[in-house]
């Protein structure tokens, strides 16, 4: 049996528990990021830099885009959050930043909100957390023309 990886006790190169196997795995854009590395960096050094932060079992793919650019895909959103909290990678001894492909969206549900509370007040209250890009007002199941009092905000 191969040695366990430091991140989660999994053998190196295996997806984390609960992740789909590589043959059926279809990554989503929110798990992909680009990185521009020093000229002397190799694919292996990029893989090692990502694995140092999130662990090798969380790395799905590293693709060389030409020149000094690479595109990396992770298995889970938890690994992506861990990488974003870390703030970048150290490749060949140099700190490099990552460029996330998909914007980070946050969904906020305002449950049982009185109907007289206007959206502008809520948009101002949510402003410190991001820009509101959409507002949904769900309806009741039996009467689709009647709102249920909830509002769902998507922030970017």
UniProtKB/TrEMBL annotation:
<protein>
    <submittedName>
        <fullName>Uncharacterized protein</fullName>
    </submittedName>
</protein>
<feature type="region of interest" description="Disordered">
    <location>
        <begin position="1"/>
        <end position="25"/>
    </location>
</feature>
């Amino acid at each position: 049996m191969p040695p366990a990886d430091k991140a989660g006790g999994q053998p190196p190169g295996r997806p984390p528990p609960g992740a789909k196997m590589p043959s059926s795995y279809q990554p989503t854009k929110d798990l992909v990021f680009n990185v521009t590395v020093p000229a002397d960096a190799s694919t292996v050094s990029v893989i090692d830099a990502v694995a140092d932060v999130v662990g090798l079992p969380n790395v799905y793919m590293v693709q060389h885009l030409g020149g000094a650019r690479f595109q990396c895909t992770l298995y889970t959103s938890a690994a992506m959050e861990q990488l974003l909290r870390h703030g970048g990678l150290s490749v060949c001894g140099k700190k490099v930043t990552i460029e996330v492909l998909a914007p980070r969206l946050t969904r906020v549900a305002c449950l049982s909100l009185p109907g007289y509370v206007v959206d502008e007040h809520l948009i101002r209250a949510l402003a410190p957390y991001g820009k509101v890009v959409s507002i949904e007002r769900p309806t009741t199941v039996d009467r689709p023309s009647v709102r249920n009092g909830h509002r769902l905000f998507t922030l970017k």
